[in-house]
Write a structure and sequence with these properties.
By secondary structure, the chain is mostly helical. The protein has one domain. The protein contains four helices and no strands. Helix 3 packs antiparallel against helix 4. The longest helix has 35 residues. The chain is flat, with a radius of gyration of 18 Å.
Length: 124
Amino acid sequence: MTAASPKATRHILYITIIAIAIFIGGTTALHLITSPARDKIASGLLADFVITFPTLYYFIIVRPLKVLAKSVLLVLSVCCLVAYVVLPQQQREYILQIRKLSALVEIAFIIYAVTKIKKNKGCL
């Protein structure tokens, strides 16, 4: 079994702290704010879950540690799930639309992978 490098451990710690900060800070703000501003906070938290965190994951984990870029799709799916559970009912329609868009990206990736496999089989 190989030990994780200090660089990898540090990057994983950074992304974990960011995830906890977004989750706890956002849900706390969502529940402490009065009703008129709650929709704006929920929209901001949705953007943090679906745009900010996957982007930070890409720049903190994928690029420096040379992790597969398709892992961002998994992170985006998990972020959509967390957002669906945490955010109010009126935000859930947006989450479902984002999920449909990410499904299109996943299908495009599968088509790309299949064409690459077929192309490489022709070389054998």
